[in-house]
Amino acid sequence: MWKSRLIRHALKVCSRNYTKDVPWKKHLLLLPTTSCLHGHLQHYSSKSNSEIDLTLFPIERIRNFSIIAHIDHGKSTLADRLLELTGTIGKDSHEAQMLDRLQVERERGITVKAQTATLVYNYQGIDYLLNLIDTPGHVDFSFEVSRSLAACQGVILLVDANQGVQAQTVANFFLAFSKNLTIVPVMNKIDLKNADPESVGIQMKNIFEFEPKDILRISAKTGLNVDSVLQSIVERIPPPKNCDIAKPFRALLFDSWYDRYRGVIAVIAVIDGVIRSGDSISAKHTGKSYEIKDLGILRPNEVSLPCIQAGQVGYVVCNMRSSTEAKVGDTLFKKGLVNVEEVASFRQSKPMVFAGVYPMDQSETPALRSALEKLTLNDSSVTVAKESSAALGQGWRLGFLGLLHMEVFNQRLEQEYGAEVIVTVPSVPYKIQLHGEKNIKKYGAREIVVNNPAFFPDPSIIEQYFEPMVLGTIITPDIYMGPIMSLALDRRGVQVDSKNVDSSRVMMQFKFPLNEIAVDFYDALKSLSSGYASFDYEEDGFEASDIVKLHIMLNGEVVEELSTVVHVSKARKYGKEICLRLQETIPRQMFQVAIQATVGGKVVARENVAALRKDVTAKCYGGDISRRMKLLKRQAEGKKRMKSIANIELPRDTFIKVLKR
Amino acid sequence: MKVSSTYLAQCDHSLLEIFKSEATVYFHWPFCKNICTFCNFNKYKKPENKLGQDFEKKMETSLIRETQTIFGLTRVKKIKSIYFGGGTPSLAPSTTISRLIQCVKQFANTDEKMEITIECNPSSLNMTRKLEEYFKFGVNRVSVGLQSLDDKKLKILGRDHSSNDGLMMFKQATEIFGTDAVSVDLLFRKPGDTIQSWENELIQILEHKPHHVSLYELTPEKGTRLFRELKSGELTIPNENDTASMYLLALKLLKEYSLERYEISNFAKAGSRAQSLHNMSYWHGTQYIGIGPGAHSRIFPLKANLRESRIQTLDPQSWQDLVERNGHATRLCKQQSRLEILSELLITSLRTIKGTQPNRWNLFQPQYSMNDVFGAAEPLKFFYLDGYLKWGMNGSFQATDKGLNVIDGILPTVLNVLSEYHTRHKFTP
């Protein structure tokens, strides 16, 4: 992951050459394949786009695979190399790392939206069609990962020979493993001075039970042994299963994006039959029908072709108007078929982290709204609800799949919007069990899910709270075990497992409340391990928990906007934190201001802002009056915008500083 | 009700005519021998050669010319006070001071006892002789730029005099002009000040029994050397909390020496006639005419009902050229709305113990009274109840002692109440 400071920096660097008008998905140029045949590399295929005839590839000569890796282990570089080796793109293309199309992806070296590319590879005299299905690198996007994997039969598990197995590698491995995919272990960056393939081999044996002889050792950067990866893909990964070209058309929709001219472009893996332009299809989940306007393969840009057939992967354009219509995981089929079997079980993505988003200045609300609309067109997993706060004004409450998802989305939002956005401290959804027939009737169910602390029912009608849990995996050099244990305990973590991955590194697993890792956890982990520990998590259901509502009071009056919910053990600490932050930001008033944090009427933390004793300007003669007037008028304008609570005038800035992440 | 208010308006109308015929005059002498590190005024170092002398000569001519022109634009018949400020007006040739006083007397009526003040810097040469000359020409009040009794601090601030020079001048001025006619300028929150050092310094000054003290908090202004020195960390000044303690301590000590605060920064001996009438005029909305580079004015021009605010050209050379060409060097001239005039009246008069006088208010705004606006204003309720604002016996709107200490925190609310009332009742702006 990263530190937020780096994000800001990256933002600054990139915003300079950021062109708003270029749709981010489409700003790659497909270079003519001929331009890359300058002999730097031996190409294993020389098929230019126009020569590809998909009907020549029976199912046995198709391989669908993904590359999964921890961030910075070289996934995108390997993908680029595979594309080059097969002549799909030219070497030294203008765009580094072809598959990372999003600006934020390139900046951070992570992949958010899955991208797909079709390669033609000549192995022992026979052309094979390899479909590289790129996956997001983080399990925050586990839903995206799993739908990408649903279109694959195998994965390349890429591990940095220098950094070794990281938390994300583990999470990704188990995801692929649980889907019964063939896993090709590959060790990357073996050309580096610090590479230690032997001990990384041991780690891979200890954790994943790979035999060292099966692990490919490559350098994606120099191209060393990359051809062995292509060979292994053909040799080890099976062709698509359960496909039948003779049956009527059926396909899995596993990705989509929005093109402002053509509407939704959906990426599909064809299971049965053939699909051609002009065919009529239906979507199982939405029940809607469409006519295919265009179809083809991705290399990685769209190359229009007459048909795609069973086992193959490609794109279709069919007048879907918004990405919400293109339900990822949905099954497409020939119109008119009945009792169609779903390719993958469909599940709506469920947001797990919520945060309020507000413009810095209320006059910028329309601009922020249009930026949000644009982004959610492409990322239908973000939920959007209007929210208005007396302190921050009109804004939105967004739901994200996870923390990284939130970070990435917010960064994209700031880029799209071109200004700083106020993002509130994230919160998680709580399940609340009510008692009393009347209350249950009122809320419509005995168990309700509340996404916003402001909407918590009165504690008197609550029987039990449940909070979302995660299983967190930490891999770290063992010398940091002590401090990491303390951090985990402080965050209410419960250790589930711990094992040595080699002679100096350990893998620890904890069960954490999601809320506890939602803020600062990763930064804290990185700083106490000098950056060496890696962390990843997966959702792990809900558990009963002792949650309380924390109120903030100013001179005895509750400030609703600052109320929040915390675990009972954290009430004092969190209350103290907010009180201190308020003490720093509340401007001095004519009188003392008492800041109190209370739980159920009991004060758990308290700070004071001393009264203002002097507030005067020294000089005010003939020549000073104009300037003085200007200053006072500005202050007077500011006062109009302040919120008054118990006679205390609070500028918006105070709320921003307390509510902001 | 209606009848009486019309009647009132008529009364006010004739009062307004008298009011429009009276003004004070300020002359700006923009030169200094040395630039103080904290000063952000319009001041320049004068070339010390023949060129500089010629320039001075021309300054006098231009000042007189500008006085004549601006007077002609107004309905002013009577001048109530004259003030020579700067820069360092005591560096100007005394003949210039004399001629400027004569010039004012020539263009307008004046009382024999009209207050004429000059700012004097203890560094100016031959001060005894100069003070005597000033006295002879009719100057009757002197403001001494003492600033501090700590030589080290004077040096840090770029002052070119010792504490002894300052005290000497204070004594001489007192002997020549009388105790009620001499004021001393003091600075607190100087680099290196502590609450204790400030207390000692202030007591030491008060032991010399001044009848008028102007007490200024050193305010680092952008663009000054002091500002840069503070920013770079070369110098530090006391924090906000200690500064508040210093001001409150000064209030207490000054009171003990029976110096009464009659404005935020100005203190005069109780029962004396030491208060500055000239400055008082600024605070209570009297017309003022500013002559010289960068001087400000508030005047009612001929045949206009609303007041205008003027600023003269800042740079002395350009100012001179413009005066030569146009008779005056006004760089900015703006008509003030009724609301602006009232706002200015409030922010200045509420800094004084007398507060905003109802008769002044009615002159500017006969349509509604101060009490209509502020009497029952909800946003001010707290200030009344907690003793920050009050109403005087004569119906004046005042800040209490406690209120004066934090007046900057009160004024924005007062301004908002006024503009809200004004808009709500759809009065002409």
From TrEMBL, chain A:
**Predominant localisation class:** mitochondrion
The Tr-type G domain extends over 60-241
Localization in the cell: Mitochondrion inner membrane
Keywords (alphabetical) are: GTP-binding, Hydrolase, Membrane, Mitochondrion, Mitochondrion inner membrane, Nucleotide-binding, Protein biosynthesis
Which InterPro entries does UniProt cross-reference here? EF-4 (IPR006297), EFG_III/V (IPR035647), EFG_V-like (IPR000640), EFTu-like_2 (IPR004161), G_TR_CS (IPR031157), LepA_C_sf (IPR038363), LepA_CTD (IPR013842), LepA_IV (IPR035654)
- What does this chain do? Promotes mitochondrial protein synthesis. May act as a fidelity factor of the translation reaction, by catalyzing a one-codon backward translocation of tRNAs on improperly translocated ribosomes. Binds to mitochondrial ribosomes in a GTP-dependent manner.
Give the protein family: Belongs to the GTP-binding elongation factor family. LepA subfamily. Belongs to the TRAFAC class translation factor GTPase superfamily. Classic translation factor GTPase family. LepA subfamily.
Q: What is this protein called?
A: Translation factor GUF1 homolog, mitochondrial
Source organism per entry reads Daphnia magna
Q: What is the lineage of its organism?
A: Eukaryota, Metazoa, Ecdysozoa, Arthropoda, Crustacea
TrEMBL record, chain B:
Q: Which residues form a coiled coil?
A: none
SMART domains noted in UniProt? Elp3
Q: Does the keyword Iron-sulfur apply?
A: yes
Q: What does this protein do?
A: May be a heme chaperone, appears to bind heme. Homologous bacterial proteins do not have oxygen-independent coproporphyrinogen-III oxidase activity. Binds 1 [4Fe-4S] cluster. The cluster is coordinated with 3 cysteines and an exchangeable S-adenosyl-L-methionine.
Recorded GO molecular functions are: 4 iron, 4 sulfur cluster binding; coproporphyrinogen oxidase activity; metal ion binding
Q: Which domain of life is it from?
A: Eukaryota
- Return the PROSITE patterns for the record: RADICAL_SAM
Keywords from the named record: Chaperone, Heme, Iron, Iron-sulfur, Metal-binding, S-adenosyl-L-methionine
Classification via InterPro entries: Aldolase_TIM, Coproporphyrinogen-III_oxidase, Elp3/MiaA/NifB-like_rSAM, HemW-like, rSAM, rSAM_sf
Which processes are annotated in GO (biological process)? porphyrin-containing compound biosynthetic process
Which named protein is this? Radical S-adenosyl methionine domain-containing protein 1, mitochondrial
Query: Into which family does the record put it?
Result: Belongs to the anaerobic coproporphyrinogen-III oxidase family. HemW subfamily.
Gene Ontology CC annotation, any one: mitochondrion
Q: Which CDD domains match?
A: Radical_SAM
